[in-house]
Amino acid sequence: MTDHIRLEHVTLDFPGKHQRLTVLEDVSLSLAQGEFVVLLGPSGCGKSTILNAIAGFTGARQGRILCAGQPVSGPHPSRGMVFQQPNLFPWLSVLDNVTFGPRMAGKKRAAANSEANAWLRRVGLEGFEHHAPWQLSGGMKQRVALARAWLPDPDVLLMDEPFGALDAQTRMMMQELLRAAWRQTGTTILFVTHDVEEALFLADRILVMSARPGTIVDEVVLPFGPERDIETLAQAAGYSDIKQHVLHRVRAEARRASQAGGKEGDK
Ligand SMILES: Nc1ncnc2c1ncn2[C@@H]1O[C@H](COP(=O)(O)OP(=O)(O)OP(=O)(O)O)[C@@H](O)[C@H]1O
Ligand SMILES: [Mg+2]
């Protein structure tokens, strides 16, 4: 497998009150084509910043960000993003929300609609094409956001706690749906969460970040294979040990972050 996304020694900072705030420090990571990688780490360590940098919203001070071997210089439809909030246009139907981007880019409505309908079927929203966002539950809105993100056939999906606001049952259904869609499409996915069990179900590989300035402090390759059953995965060989190890690392970094919190300010 070839590297699809590469961060090489990325250091990134933002303007602060007195000095610049270093958010990422010497972060190197890579995702293989079609890989599903989950990023865990304490609040404020720079997870969203990594996604924003790969999306091309934020530039690095030092280091390089490459996608398919090319430096990332700005946003591109080949790199899709899904956020915690579905961010749907309230005045557009489900179908028009899903097709909005491609239509703005010049795609004909009929072609966009037929592809969107296929995606809406895949995410279980057949029959809701003409509903308005306010007529949908939170989970259904997030399904619309998934269909919208996948419609332009992105090479990469950057997902920032997309199921963080959902109840536990809906969340599990969304996790199953996401894994199934990923297996069908082969999209490269970088997914941020605070939920270790979610990470264990979804990922090929987990990266753990340190407290800010964020850097990658641990990497765990999951041995569970492609066929995963959300109800029985916890009984898989190695599951408990890996879960304990990852929880421990994440909690240790969260403690470091909260200790540093008192001294937070510009670094
Ligand atoms: N555009 C920006 N301008 C200034 N500071 C920013 C900007 N974006 C992020 N930051 C700062 O960078 C740090 C990391 O933020 P980021 O959103 O990447 O954290 P995170 O790991 O995603 O946290 P959470 O788990 O809470 O979502 C924070 O201290 C935040 O205030
Ligand atoms: Mg974040």
List keywords for this structure.
267 residues; alpha/beta; Rossmann fold; six-stranded mixed β-sheet; 7 helices; 10 strands; binds adenosine-5'-triphosphate; binds magnesium ion
Structure notes:
Helix content is 36%, strand content 23%. It is an alpha/beta fold. The chain has a domain at 3-78 and 154-261: P-loop containing nucleotide triphosphate hydrolases (Rossmann fold), CATH 3.40.50. The strands form 2 sheets. It has a 6-stranded mixed sheet, sandwiched between helices. It has a 4-stranded antiparallel sheet with strand order 2-1-4-5, with helices on one face. β4 (62-67) and β5 form a beta hairpin. It is globular. 37% of the residues are buried. It binds adenosine-5'-triphosphate and magnesium ion (MG). Magnesium ion binds at residues 47-48, 160.
Short description:
The protein is α/β, with parallel strands linked by helices.
Question: What CATH first level of the domain at 3-78 and 154-261 would be assigned?
Answer: Alpha Beta
* Oligomer class: single chain
| Helix percent band | 25-40%
Strand content: 15-25%
Which regions have little confidence, pLDDT < 50, spanning 5+ residues?
none
Query: Which architecture of the domain at 3-78 and 154-261 does the CATH hierarchy give at level 2?
Result: 3-Layer(aba) Sandwich
Average pLDDT across residues? 94
Structural class by helix and strand composition: alpha/beta
| H and E order | EEEHEEEHHHEHEHEEH
User: Judging from the principal axes of the Cα atoms, what is the shape?
Assistant: globular
Superfamily (CATH H level) name of the domain at 3-78 and 154-261 = P-loop containing nucleotide triphosphate hydrolases
Biggest β-sheet, characterized?
Answer: 6 strands, mixed
- CATH fold category name of the domain at 3-78 and 154-261: Rossmann fold
Strands, total number: 10
Radius of gyration: 19 Å
Terminus-to-terminus distance? 39 Å
Question: What is bound: which ligands?
Answer: adenosine-5'-triphosphate, magnesium ion
| Widest beta sheet: strand line-up | 6-7-8-3-9-10
Summed up, the helix count is 7
